Amino acid sequence: MVSQSFVQSFLLLISATLFLSYISNLFYAKTRIPDIVWLLGFGYLLGPVLGFFEIGTFMSIFPLLILVTVSIFSFDTGINVDISSVMRTVIKALLLSMTTFLAVTFIVGFSVSFLFPDQFKLLEGLLLGAMIGGLGGISVSGILDQLKTLIPFIEDEGTVLNLESTLSDPIKVVACVTLIRMIMSPGLTLEAGVKDIVFTFTVSVLLGLAVGLLWAEVLNFLWGRPFNYMMTVAALFPIYIASEAVAGTGGGPITALAFGLTITNYRYISRKLGSNRKVRIDKKRIREFNMEITFLIKAFFFVYLGLTVELSLEYTLVALGIVALMLIVRYLVASGVGNILRFTVGEMVLSRVIFLQGTSALVLSELPGLLDPTGQFLNLEIYKNFCYPIVFVTIIFVSVVGPTLAKRQLRRM
């Protein structure tokens, strides 16, 4: 039975988490350090450092918290993709995003599997690389704001970077789910494994697309009524669970992503399907409400992650090495892609020096534990134990040092 003192402490933790998340957002304009850093640090301070909360007391809510976070995160990624805007500069952003993702995934994956064979098999190493292989959009806009005085047309120069951060999350979600399915099916032949993965991906996308088109019609029918967004959230969780049952393990995040993307891009998708039907969907309102829900869920997730993570000198040193490797790879990839596609000077400099991790890496680090209850992984905890310091270091380094490096390079060019 849970004691009254624990209940009171837990309620105080909830209040402190929400206050800290809100206040850190206010201070972001001055510190350039996002709330994610403060929340992770807060959780780590209360848990492993001071021992105010034991991880065992939270284990009962662990599966629920991860499922809710993954589904909301995937849905949020989908609704914030504006396909019509993406198409305008999609070539530059997509090639930069895909090239960076593949380079980081394979180089980091091969490196950790070679250096730490007891912790990572090759596919598990590639999974770690996929979690951190794309640009996290958590602080991109804030960093670009710091460079407005140096780059007069920063809105235009930063378009590729903002678009890349939008494209990276879906790429990482799909890749991580695919790799997890490959790890969980070691007895399958390559041909059977590929067919299984293609089936899951195809069914997941089609299910999200079909339900998204149907739900857009429902929102049109309910136009002007209160609580429409809450009804959308109520529909999201059954869709996620149904996808896991129909498409297979790992289908839920992809379906949630496709569901959100279809709702906010209904007109574009319906045209491609040969229909001129118009529906009334308040995309701005959906995104605003989802931002409130996401604020709440992510705040608890980050503090919880801080409570459960295990940091050591070894993990931290390896994470620093991974960050250095990532930044070098990014610099080389951005230089190569920029020369091929003839990036402007501003685009070239920004893509070279601004590469950081954030929300998606931390959420995806919990995905193996959610999708693999059978224990095929050598060490499920290793992912969050590495991603935690990687996110910390990249955010602080790029937020503080990135603008300075960009300014120096721009003055030389």
How would you sum up this structure, described in words?
This protein is an all-alpha fold and 413 residues long. It has a single domain, classed as Na+/H+ antiporter like fold (Up-down Bundle), CATH 1.20.1530. The chain contains 19 helices and no strands. Helix 5 (90-115) packs across helix 6 (122-131) and helix 17 runs antiparallel to helix 19 (382-412). The longest helix has 32 residues, at 190-221. The model has no long low-confidence stretch (mean pLDDT 77).
Name the poorly predicted regions.
none
Q: Give me the count of strands.
A: 0
Strand content: under 5%
CATH architecture: Up-down Bundle
Overall structural domain count: 1
Give the count of helical stretches. 19
CATH topology: Na+/H+ antiporter like fold
- Tell me the structural class: mainly alpha
**What is the radius of gyration?**
21 Å
The quaternary state of the protein chains shown equals single chain
N/C terminus separation: 66 Å
CATH class term: Mainly Alpha
Helix content percent band: over 70%
Along the chain, the helix and strand elements come as: HHHHHHHHHHHHHHHHHHH
